[in-house]
Amino acid sequence: MPQKNQTLGEFIIENQGEFKYSSGELSRLINSIRLAAKVVNHEVNKAGLVDILGAAGDTNIQGESQQKLDVYANEAFIKTLTNREIVCGIASEEEDHYITIKGRNQNHDNKYVVLIDPLDGSSNIDVNVSVGTIFSIYRRITPSGTPVTLEDFLQPGSKQVAAGYIIYGTSTMIVYTTGHGVNGFTLNPAIGTYYHSHPNMKFPEDGTIYSVNEGNYVHFPQGVKDYIKFCQEEEGNRPYTSRYIGSLVSDIHRNMIKGGIYIYPNTAKNPEGKLRLLYECNPVAFIAEQAGGLASDGFQRILDIEPTELHQRVPFICGSRNMVLKAEEFMQNAESQKT
Ligand code: AHM
Ligand code: MG
Questions:
Q1: pTM for the full model?
Q2: Is the pLDDT confidence value at 223 over 60?
Q3: Residue 225 belongs to domain spanning
Q4: Do 270 and 227 have their domain in common?
Q5: Which residue's CA lies nearest to atom 4 of ligand 1?
Q6: Domain shared by 182 and 234, yes or no
């Protein structure tokens, strides 16, 4: 059982011994994400006041120009992560190229790379629906002292040392793993403190929720169509229900608590899938596995995929273990019938 009223800061310190590398560094890194998340949360919460405070592109009353929230979030995370002498490179869904970061005395001694989707699902902001930040952390593989290279970012997801998401929902939460289970912390906005509200989170082994954009149904691969039909017709008593927010962290978060499966397959419009392997799928897959769930592209484990480019997209199936196994079975059956 967690300590009553334990804060994220206390949890980080208490558990830093579990981390196999220099524990202080990872703690400082998670701490800087916690800080940036508060700043972004503050801004996201004001989004509904856009008519009063001014829209993106306007100049506000202090003469500052208003930014789009995803640009704001990107800058907030990059700025916070840059000033800690821990991170040697950042890749962001919002940036075409990775950013090299120098350490103390302008050297290249920092050890970690961070990949981040600063504000995922941002089209939901206009309608007051939850959005999220997703982050993924690796040890660099090139030698310390040299500038970071693309190779440091293109590591398979199984090499992640930590990953997490922040959900700006009815409450703001940070959910993360360092490879020792998944823990969730809820922000008390009155005092700006995250409390350990969701210890040792687990995907139920089975579930009844399937989350997929069925508007794309006709463009789905046969295996996904078959799986959806299975969910709709199973034993004639429709045990399944469909829930789709269209905001990855929210859909995953709900399914992790209630039991369910999230599917974003390849479609005619997005032949490789829509979601990004490095910024979205790998961190969510790491969390899912740490919570006892699974993540797959239908044929292989997401965390085993060798990335070839920064903004690579993959089909994504993630959720309760038995549901993902069943979906994979349909994918593989459909594939074998092709030949
Ligand atoms: P984004 O990175 O452009 O915000 O897109 C990612 C989002 C996910 O959060 C969500 O699950 C998915 O796109 C929804 O896509 P669609 O509207 O095609 O169903
Ligand atoms: Mg995104």
A1: 0.94
A2: yes
A3: 209-336
A4: yes
A5: 121
A6: no
